[in-house]
Design a protein that fits this description.
The chain has 236 residues and is α+β, with helices and mostly antiparallel strands. 39% of the residues lie in helices and 16% in strands. Strands 1, 2, 3, 4, 5, 6 and 7 form a 7-stranded antiparallel beta sheet that branches.
Length: 236
C-alpha cells in the first residue's frame, strides 16, 4: 500500500512539473502549483488517516488487577489480612464453600443493605472486588475493601482509617470486619481458628500462637504435611 502511494505521488509530481508549451502566461505556473499542493495534501491525508485510526484501535488502557495491601507498620486504626507477621494489624482471611460469585454477592449484599454506615465507591464484578467508605465518628472516616479470590476460595480484606491521626478506634475496624463475615453467613476464619500450637503436643511459646502460626497450620493441613514444613525459611 505504501509503495502504491509513493508511486502515485511521484507520478503526480512528475505530471505537475512536466514540460508544457510556452504560452508566456503565468497562469500555467499557478495552476501547476495549485495542483501539486492539492495532490500532496490529499495523499498525505490518505496516508495519515488510516494510521491514526489504527492507533486508536490499538490503544487500550490496561486496568491493574485489584489487590489488598497491608496496613502500615505504625498504623493505629487498621486491620488487614495482608499483615501476616503483625498480630495487632492482622485478621485471618475467610474461607467459603459456596461459589466465588455467591461469596461476592453475599459481601455486596451486606454492604448495600447497610447504607447508613457504608457508602460503596467501587465495584469490580469481574475481579470480585468492592470498596466502600464507612461511618464511624464521622461520615467517610474509614474505608473497607474486600477481594474474593476464586482460585483459592478465600476472601482477603482491609479496614482502615482513611486519614491517619484520628483517635484510637478501640477495635472498631476489627469488629467491623468480623460483623460483615458473620452477616454473610457463609464464611469461616481461615484454618477454622486452628493455630500452630494446636499440633504436636501444643506449647504456644514453642510454636508461636500468632498470625504466622495460623498460616502454617492452615497451609500445612491443606497439603497434609503439618505446619512444620511450610514457610521453612522463616524458621531458619
Amino acid at each position: 500500500m505504501m509503495r502504491l502511494l509513493v508511486a502515485f505521488l511521484s507520478l503526480s509530481l512528475s505530471s505537475a512539473f512536466s514540460v508544457q508549451p510556452k504560452t508566456g502566461s503565468e497562469a500555467s505556473v499557478s495552476t501547476r502549483a495549485d495542483f501539486v499542493s492539492k495532490t500532496c495534501g490529499a495523499i498525505l491525508s490518505s496516508m495519515l488517516m488510516p494510521t491514526s485510526a489504527l492507533a486508536d484501535e490499538e490503544t487500550e488502557i490496561i486496568k491493574p488487577s485489584p489487590s489488598i495491601k497491608a496496613c502500615d507498620r505504625d498504623a493505629k486504626n487498621c486491620v488487614s489480612s495482608a499483615n501476616i507477621k503483625q498480630i495487632d494489624l492482622y485478621s485471618p482471611p475467610w474461607t467459603f464453600e459456596v461459589s466465588p460469585d455467591e461469596a461476592f454477592a453475599r459481601i455486596k449484599g451486606v454492604l448495600k443493605s447497610d447504607d447508613y454506615h457504608y457508602a460503596i465507591k467501587e465495584i469490580d464484578d469481574e475481579a470480585r472486588y468492592i470498596r466502600a467508605y464507612v461511618l464511624r465518628r464521622e461520615a467517610d472516616q474509614d474505608e473497607v475493601e474486600f477481594l474474593v479470590k476464586g482460585d483459592d476460595k478465600v476472601v482477603v480484606f482491609k479496614s482502615s482509617e482513611r486519614k491517619e491521626g484520628g483517635l484510637p478506634d478501640l477495635g472498631v475496624n476489627r469488629k467491623r470486619i468480623d460483623d460483615v463475615r458473620k452477616r454473610g453467613a457463609v464464611f469461616e476464619l481461615m484454618g477454622g481458628g486452628a493455630t500452630a500450637d494446636s499440633y504436636d503436643g501444643g506449647g504456644a511459646a514453642a510454636r508461636g500462637n500468632n498470625a504466622f502460626g495460623q498460616l502454617k497450620a492452615f497451609y500445612g493441613l491443606q497439603k497434609g504435611e503439618g505446619f512444620q514444613s511450610v514457610f521453612e525459611e522463616e524458621d531458619e
